[in-house]
Design goal:
Blueprint lengths: L19 H20 L6 H8 L3 H7 L3 H16 L8 H18 L2 H15 L1 H29 L8 H17 L7 H12 L3
Helix pairs in contact: 1-2, 1-4, 4-6, 4-7, 5-9, 6-7, 7-8
Length: 202
């Protein structure tokens, strides 16, 4: 038996699929990353992002306090998608997989290095945004290394000279040094060198 409304009319069909708010959010994230890729970080204004995403500026401001936060979420999503926490069964294989996936993402998307540099600069200029950048991205990526190190310690294959903080400092210290100070490729040779450093015991 079909239940109607109070006036006897049939009820409206239920909307299936993703909520409209999520569709809008995804469109905003995509618009922001496209503008950065095409025109650079400085050109990615809230106005341009709203226009390309087909939403009002207030929709954006309800979801994010700044354009940096929009791009921070986009970057975090992309990192989670393309750099999942590996589980290869041993510390050397896990570290090598993490390095390979991290470097492949930087190589795959030319806008990623520029975006990382821009967000790091923004984090230095705006301490409040800097706190969000550290919490939502930097510490989040370090936590992946902690997970790998904890697993390795439980299995007994973590080298005595390595712990989670050391491993994260080595991996991300090198990445940020090459992004910010001395540009150099993120290639297999670098992955080999870092993997050897982090997996060879004393």
């Amino acid at each position: 038996m079909t239940t109607g409304t109070a006036d006897g009319a049939a009820p409206p069909p239920r909307r299936t699929g993703r909520p409209r708010s999520q569709d809008s959010r995804d469109a905003i994230l995509l618009a922001a990353t496209e503008i950065v890729a095409e025109q650079g970080y400085a050109a990615a204004s809230i106005e341009k992002i709203a226009q390309r995403a087909g939403v009002g500026k207030q929709t954006i401001y309800r979801g994010w306090p700044s354009k940096g936060d929009i791009l921070l979420e986009a970057l975090t999503r992309k990192a989670d998608l393309y750099i999942p926490i590996p589980d290869e069964g041993n510390w050397p294989a896990d570290i090598r997989r993490l390095l390979d996936d991290s470097f492949a993402l930087v190589r795959r998307a030319p806008q990623i290095p520029d975006l990382l540099r821009a967000l790091m600069v923004e984090a230095q200029l705006d301490p409040v945004f800097g706190d969000r950048f550290r919490t939502n991205f930097l510490q989040h990526r370090r936590a992946a290394v902690t997970t790998l190190a904890d697993r390795a310690a439980q299995r007994g294959d973590l080298p005595a000279s390595v712990n989670a903080d050391v491993a994260a400092d080595v991996i991300y210290g090198v990445i940020w040094y090459r992004l910010l100070a001395v540009p150099a490729p993120f290639d297999d040779r670098l992955a080999d060198d870092l993997a050897t450093l982090l997996t060879t015991g004393p």
